[in-house]
Amino acid sequence: MTPSAPPPPPWEPGPPWASDSLREPSPPQRPVPTVYEQLQADPGLQRLRAARRRPVFAVAGAVVGLYLLNALLAGEARGFMAVGVAGPLNIGLALSLIQCVTTAWAVWWYTRYARNFLDPDGRRLRAHVEKRENTR
To answer: CB of 33 within 8 A of CB of 136?
Structure first.
């Protein structure tokens, strides 16, 4: 009885300096997304960004509009702005004071809006991300 020959060794790609044409191409590796990339893709962050932007543009537009109206009237309607309202207070000064009050109101409103609507959503999103980080 003759012993059987050992099976041929499996094909190996060869040394690293061998021709690339002999190697099988490896599938492309997708990098693992970072926490930042995962957070950017999170729909909760998209909602939070939209909730932050939406009302701010309206309030900022009103404050800037009042400023531009005040500047336009001061430059073009000097007689109207000089009309007295009460004692030394004229329309120009009254509009400037109203502008200061509306700017302070806008800052107060946004602080309150952020505290009541944005901060809770931000805390929930942070807890979600930290929970996902701890499970890794």
So the answer is: no
Q: What is the pTM of this model?
A: 0.60
91 touches 85 (CB < 8 A): yes
| C-beta separation of 65 from 71 below 8 A | no
pLDDT digits (tens, 9 = 90+) for 49-79: 888 888 888 899 999 999 999 999 999 988 9
Distance of CA 17 to the CA centre of its chain: 48
**Secondary structure string (H, E, C) spanning the chain:** CCCCCCCCCCCCCCCCCCCHHHCCCCCCCCCCCCHHHHHHHCHHHHHHHHHHHHHHHHHHHHHHHHHHHHHHHHHHCHHHHCCEEECCEEHHHHHHHHHHHHHHHHHHHHHHHHHHHHHHHHHHHHHHHHHHHHCC
Start-to-end CA span in the chain (Å): 59
Contacts (Cβ under 8 Å, ≥6 apart) of 14: 22, 23
Whole-number Å distance between alpha carbons of 44 and 20? 46
